[in-house]
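Reminder to self: keep the SMILES exactly as supplied, no canonicalising. Ligand is L-homoserine.
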Amino acid sequence: MSGIRIPAGFSVEVTAPATSANLGAGYDSFGLALGVADTVRARLSDTEVPHDSRAVITGEGADFLPRTGDHLILRVAEQILAAREVAGGERLVLECENAIPQSRGMGSSAAAVVAGLSIADAASVAAGLPEPTAAEKLAWATHFEGHPDNAAPALFGGVTVSWYPESDRASSISLPVHPEVRAVVVVPDERLGTDVARELLPRTVPHADAAANSAVAGLFVHAICHDPSLLLEGTVDRLHQEFRRPAMLASLERVDALRAAGLAAVVSGAGPTVLVLGTGEDLADRVSAVLAGDDARVLQPQIAENGATTLSLRPMSA
Ligand SMILES: Nc1ncnc2c1ncn2[C@@H]1O[C@H](COP(=O)(O)OP(=O)(O)OP(=O)(O)O)[C@@H](O)[C@H]1O
Ligand SMILES: N[C@@H](CCO)C(=O)O
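Structure tokens returned for the bound complex:
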């Protein structure tokens, strides 16, 4: 280490939003931030902390997420601080208020990664390093998350399109979303790990399917920015959803029923949550009416304009 360390008394509170990736045809590229967020308070302990009590967790995942350095937020924060040669990462302790359900396709891992990154950034700045650029933040978040479609909206909010200008560097832009577009999610109790869902995808797809998706992806951008009446046609996917049907039969049945009723429903991320995009304050009611008798939770969290926030950074003691 170069002698840079997190100062005594360091304390920060960050939030990171849930996200929905793919949005139909934009596999591994499109994503949006939702108005549900995890809140994490981190502080530097001035004494050694028992390894298994570094994270106090309430809310979603409190019964099964690890409390040690295996905890994703701690692991990300520590590894980034170590890469920057900032000492003290192993003495960070967390209070996590989790609102995002894990392994449901609502970007919980991206939110955890972005929370860890935000803590590492705040600690680095407190130690005297410059504030990282947006491009550096996306690079770190993509490094840990594996793909940028959840990471970009978790960092920057809104609806994002991500791509790889170089094979090892992701980039993203934010779209100017039509003000009437609303987002509803249908969240089942069942969990499905992203790694399991990715295993179900074929290594290659027919050229016609790739061509169809690229046309619809272009239409989606127009629909969400300018003409929400085209969202149903602009969310037809041929690259991922059907391949994953066997792992989430009930979710694909919900997608089918909602689309048959004219609502732009897609699998959210790797599932099994379903995302519905549309207009009107009554969108959640219309979704609930189509899914009458279904026990999955219907929520209308809206599209969040903002991504991760660093809520408070107390002045550091010397
Ligand atoms: N708040 C959190 N704190 C610590 N670890 C978390 C947290 N949220 C998610 N994780 C880790 O990420 C895993 C879930 O990641 P996974 O990619 O399977 O689902 P997801 O991110 O919710 O879904 P998707 O990527 O499809 O939107 C959890 O099992 C846990 O290991
Ligand atoms: N694009 C990703 C999102 C989940 O991380 C997938 O569908 O596997």
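Points to follow up:
Residues 19 and 80 are 23 Å apart (CA to CA).
The longest strand covers residues 30-44.
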